[in-house]
Specification:
Blueprint lengths: L6 E4 L12 H9 L4 E8 L5 E3 L11 H4 L17 H4 L33 H15 L4 E6 L2 H6 L4 H11 L9 E5 L2 H9 L6 E5 L12 H4 L2 H8 L4 E3 L6 E3 L5 E3 L3 H7 L3 E2 L16 H12 L3 E4 L2 H11 L7
Parallel strand pairs: 1-2, 1-11, 2-4, 4-5, 5-6, 6-7, 7-10
Antiparallel strand pairs: 2-3, 8-9
Helix pairs in contact: 1-4, 11-12
Length: about 325
């Protein structure tokens, strides 16, 4: 294990237990001991940065009931077509498949009658600061600029707005308890070099088939690619399946040297995403996943839907860790 305990990154909040990116999920993540709380950020029609993962509203809100005539020709409702005031009338729900109406994670929160409003980045950053004060903690924020090229094609530029908002709340430099991440390598370079952002930056590394950006993720995983990343970023965020796999008995095995290679370039490694209700193929159980990532690969942190399980595993390995 690392001498310094790895960090628990609350993926969209405590999203295993409450709807993702709801304020309630963020408060619970803070209470469960997350070291960082994630914010995915997109823009509204009136250029307000909101904390929401998808560009479309279909899978995560009741928009089809509230605004049945506002879908685009592709059949989806896009947040960028709505003002903040309009978005405030919606309620976040557990993720569904819009085509079938089936819940993505059937065992998760199924409450009804409790509204979960969409929140702005301003509101979320203020919430984390307030929770830190009242609870005597220093949970950080971990913000993602979502689909910047798509936003620009729609006439919007989210990165400067996100950077300015973070700075207003005291997150401006590498010494601040914050990360800024993006899947788009061209945009992340722009954030560092042209926009002059001095926050800790993380290059998200997806799969080329996902079409998250025009970025060639296969190249970024090479020695040459990692060396290039180290020139503008402080860490990488790959899928955990690119680091650890599982043998026939469900035990963890390393499937690549990606983690060690990245750390050799001075990059932190924060893979995504641990879900106890959707384990990687072949994994015996949650402990096997955590053991593979923290014990074998020695990652520096983990995006997790289940903050409590990841927190408990790390604290068991680092019993002297001081926590409020």
């Amino acid at each position: 294990m690392n001498a310094t305990p790895p960090v628990v990154i609350a993926h969209r909040g405590a999203s295993a237990y409450l709807p993702e990116h709801s304020q309630a999920a963020k408060v619970l993540a803070h209470a469960l001991g997350a070291d960082f709380i994630e914010q995915d950020v997109i823009l509204t029609q009136d250029d307000i940065p909101i904390v929401f993962h998808d560009l479309e509203l279909n899978a995560l809100t009741d928009v089809a009931l509230r605004f049945p005539d506002r879908a685009r020709p592709d059949g989806s409702w896009y947040a960028i077509d709505f003002t903040l005031a309009e978005l405030r009338t919606l309620s976040i729900r557990e993720r569904i498949d819009p085509a079938s109406g089936r819940r993505t994670y059937p065992g998760r929160y199924a409450g009804t009658g409790v509204p979960f409003p969409i929140v702005t980045l301003d509101e979320e950053l203020a919430l984390v600061r307030a929770l830190n004060r009242v609870r005597g903690r220093d949970a950080g924020v971990y913000t993602e600029v979502k689909s910047p090229a798509w936003h620009r094609a729609q006439g919007k530029d989210p990165s400067p707005i996100v950077i300015e908002t973070l700075a207003r709340h005291g997150y401006a430099g590498r010494g601040d308890n914050a990360y800024l991440q993006c899947f788009d390598d061209v945009e992340l370079r722009r954030i560092r070099q042209s926009l002059g952002c001095d926050l800790k930056l993380v290059q998200l590394i997806g799969e080329n088939a996902w079409a998250e950006a025009a970025t060639d993720y296969d190249r970024l995983r090479t020695a040459e690619g990692l060396a290039a990343i180290a020139g503008y970023a402080d860490g990488i965020g790959p899928p955990m399946t690119r680091i650890v796999g599982f043998d026939g008995a469900g035990e963890p095995v390393l499937v690549s040297s990606l983690c060690a290679d990245a750390q050799g370039h001075g990059l932190a490694v924060h893979p995504f995403t641990f879900r106890a209700d959707a384990l990687p193929p072949g994994a015996r159980d949650s402990d096997a996943v955590h053991e593979g990532l923290f014990g074998l690969a020695r990652v520096d942190g983990l995006f997790t839907d289940f903050c409590d399980l990841t927190r408990a595993f790390i604290d068991h390995r680092h019993p002297r860790r001081s926590r409020a």
